[in-house]
Amino acid sequence: MSKKWASRIGLIALICAIVVAYRWFGLGQYLSLESLKAHQASIHSYYLENPALVAGIFALVYIVSTALSLPGATILTLAGGAIFGLGIGIILVSFSSTIGATLAFLASRFLLRDFVQGKFKDKLASINQGVEKEGAFYLFTLRLVPIFPFFLINLVMGLTPIRTATYFVVSQLGMLLGTVVYVNAGTQLAQIDSLKGILSPGLLLSFALIGIMPLFSKWVIGAVKSRKHLRKFKRPAHFDYNMVVIGGGSAGLVSAYIAAAVKAKVALIEKHKMGGDCLNTGCVPSKALIRSAKILSYFKRANEFGFDALPAKADFAKVMERVQRVVKEIEPHDSVERYSGLGVECIQGEAKIRSPYEVEVNGKTLTTKNIVVATGASPLVPPIPGLSEVSYLTSDNVWNLRELPKRLIVLGGGPIGCELAQSFARFGSHVSLVEMAPRIMVREDEDVSALVTERFKTEGVAVLAGHKALRIEKAEKVLVCEFSGKEIKIPFDEILVALGRKANVKGFGIENLNIEISNKGTVAADEFLRTTNYPNIFVCGDVTGPYQFTHTASHQAWYVAVNALFSPFKKYKVDYRVIPWCTFTDPEVARVGLNEQEAKEKGISYQVTHYGIDDLDRAIAEGEAHGFVKVLTPPGSDKVLGVTIVGDHAGDIISEYVAAMKHGFGLNKILGTIHIYPTLAEANKYAAGVWKRANAPKKALEFLAKYHAWRRS
Ligand SMILES: Cc1cc2nc3c(=O)[nH]c(=O)nc-3n(C[C@H](O)[C@H](O)[C@H](O)COP(=O)(O)OP(=O)(O)OC[C@H]3O[C@@H](n4cnc5c(N)ncnc54)[C@H](O)[C@@H]3O)c2cc1C
Questions:
Q1: Are residues 452 and 400 in contact, defined by beta-carbon separation less than 8 angstroms?
Q2: Which residues, 6 or more positions from 140, have their beta carbon under 8 angstroms from its beta carbon?
Q3: Is there a contact between 120 and 224 (Cβ–Cβ < 8 Å)?
Q4: CA nearest ligand 1 atom 48, residue
Q5: Which of 184, 478, 629, 693 is most buried, most CB within 10 Å of its CB?
């Protein structure tokens, strides 16, 4: 047995012994109003003869009874006033009660915290965070309003991460007012007939008001603080708009749409193309390109599907023309015409924020109650020596290519790099995928990276993980990389930089307002997606992150529109609990929630359930029998912590798990749902089945086996 456990058992034994003694000797009878009144005079005269001794014994009794959460604190507090008078009574009671409460808090922490925090780690995570941030404040409120029994506060707070010194000081301050009231009542003991008399409804109400006061003050301080910056600017007497949105990408479009839907007057300013990155240079063209590449990959597998060899060669220019046709076809969804029809005033031009109430565009100043910054992000191009001397590609201009590069270097093994590398390789480029990390798709688990890497290699992509780009030598047209301490030269015709995306935070006026930029280079926002210093300037989409997806941009846009238009009456904290995403390589890699590496980093215990899609009827029929569904659950529970799916249409079939996580249903419910046969979505049900078998009640099954044997006998 460890020392800690031995001490725990010792402490429990001591507590039990004192509690038993308290009951056995009937000490409770002395802690009543009648008993106190009866003995008050004699104790008081003894106190006058032996002040230190009586004060010492009183403090000790008070501390022990509070530490053990024994009933009688009220009587003892009254006794403090009755015996020692107001001044000394307050000092004695205040310190004794705080020391006793802190001992109870420490006992709870020592005996229970490890167990409770270990068992309910996930559930307590946000509470812990809240306590770390505002624990002192909440404790003060709880102490001031005597609604919850103090012994309960001691026990519960012991389980949280609040510091002991903070607990002591805040408890003492918070209980002081109550102590004064009770000790004072003790000095008037002769007039008190019952304990209820001390806490009249009027007194309770004033306690409650005092308790609410810190909350109210916090709200007032917040409002004053946020208006501190606004005060410097002249507030227009009348606003032209309720909301001006800067940027007509996914985030800006959705926020403007919601504003118009609730009949607010909204202007949407776009300097380039409506639809932003997603439509013009991101999701849409990349998925159109991936589609052509996939079809070509089937041509190459013609024999496998029962055809004679098909011409497995791409007309790259035609492929890129199709990509543009797809963009054109989707364009009306994000067009000025559509949004104007929905009630949004669309303005073509470059916006500049002149003040928190004014946005300038095309030489005209628009006044607005709220501003939404949705300016997106741009490809990150690091200062690699020699790079600026060659005409490198990024996701912005790769769509202008009409000639297939013979040798293409894709710099960056993240989602964009992987999607484009595979597509270009399928069209016939010799693609080198250069990644500094030891593997591509580093955010995903190792088995995921391994599977995709394997596939890339069989399709001819040179996956160069662990390669650090050092410089470009223009004359030779080579990228020099460091790999295992050596320099390696990789020749190329084109080089595509896909090393991430940096938020567009400059050039439109936020620097003049000193709007806070996070250490990730994005516009910092609070939980309501307001900039940290202006309550009426909101941000959404890639410009603030933390996720850079179209669906998260539009998710944030809803919060932005509602919070801008309806606060202070109603506002919502943005909810990032269940965020899915997909990398559209072949096979696709889709994820929601935790994967194994994140669970390990966060110290979250989990059980893995693995279902191989190579076993799935529909996948076999499709010629796509590869990949897996990996589900993480807490050990012994069917609750979904996270799912990774690698396989054909993984991005579609993961939705069932997204719904499960969002709405709190588990694997048992997925198993109990009818899935159409034969579909890829059945993989979800089979994964749930694997989990069920692994968690089958063994004893019950043994019993059933015996039961059936008995029925046969
Ligand atoms: C190659 C690639 C593939 C991708 N694939 C996917 C995918 O499959 N799924 C997915 O979810 N996400 C994908 N993304 C990410 C997705 O495109 C972005 O997350 C999304 O477009 C972000 O939207 P946004 O509104 O924040 O920014 P943007 O779409 O960038 O919109 C910002 C807009 O603001 C305008 N603007 C900027 N400054 C001003 C100014 N001062 N005045 C007026 N207008 C201004 C810009 O012109 C731009 O149109 C992909 C991205 C790339 C690059």
A1: no
A2: 170, 173, 174, 214
A3: no
A4: 276
A5: 629
- Residue with CA at minimum distance from ligand 1 atom 17: 278
Helix residue ranges per DSSP H, 481-549: none
The Cα–Cα gap between 588 and 633 comes to 22
**Any residues with Cβ below 6 Å from ligand 1, and which?**
246-252, 269-272, 276-278, 281-283, 286, 350-351, 374-376, 395, 416, 504, 508, 541-543, 548-551, 553, 584
Q: What is the dihedral of CA 525, 527, 530, 534, to 10 degrees?
A: -90
**Which pLDDT tens digit goes with each residue over 371-386?**
999 999 999 999 999 9
Highest mean pLDDT among 3-7, 26-30, 62-66, 192-196: 62-66
| Closest Cα to atom 6 of ligand 1 | 283
Name the nearest CA neighbour of 319 among 438, 424, 410, 465: 424
Q: What is the pLDDT of residues 595-618, one digit of tens each?
A: 999 999 999 999 999 999 999 999
Is 486 in a helix, a strand, or coil?
A: strand
Whole-angstrom Cα distance, residue 152 to residue 20? 20
Pocket test of ligand 1: the residue of 290, 529, 550, 592 to mutate, having most ligand atoms within 8 Å of its CB, is 550
* Residue ID of nearest Cα to ligand 1 atom 1: 282
The H or E element that residue 368 is part of is: strand 364-373
Whole-number pLDDT of residue 100? 93
Task: Name the token pair of 500.
Answer: 């991430």
476 pLDDT higher than 70: yes
Q: 209-213, 592-596, 652-656: lowest mean pLDDT where?
A: 209-213
Q: How far is the CA of 549 from the centre of ligand 1 (A)?
A: 8
Q: Of the residues 255, 361, 549, which should be mutated to test ligand 1's pocket, given the most ligand atoms within 8 Å of the CB? A: 549
Task: Tell me the Cα Rg of the chain.
Answer: 34
- Closest ligand 1 atom to Cα of 274: 49
Instruction: Work out whether strand 407-411 and strand 430-435 pair parallel, antiparallel, or are unpaired.
Output: parallel
- Measured CA distances, 706 to 148, 520, 693, 696 (Å): 53, 62, 19, 16
Q: 87 CB contacts (<8 Å, ≥6 apart)? A: none
Q: Which residue CA neighbors atom 53 of ligand 1 most closely?
A: 282
Helix axes 415-427, 283-300, angle to 10 degrees: 40
Q: How confident is the model at residue 30 (pLDDT cuts 50, 70, 90)?
A: confident
Say how many Å lie between the CA of residue 648 and the centre of ligand 1: 26
Q: What single-letter DSSP state applies at residue 331? A: G
* Full 3-state SS string of 19-36: HHHHHHCCHHHHCCHHHH
pTM, full prediction: 0.77
81: left (phi over 0), alpha (psi -120 to 50) or beta: alpha
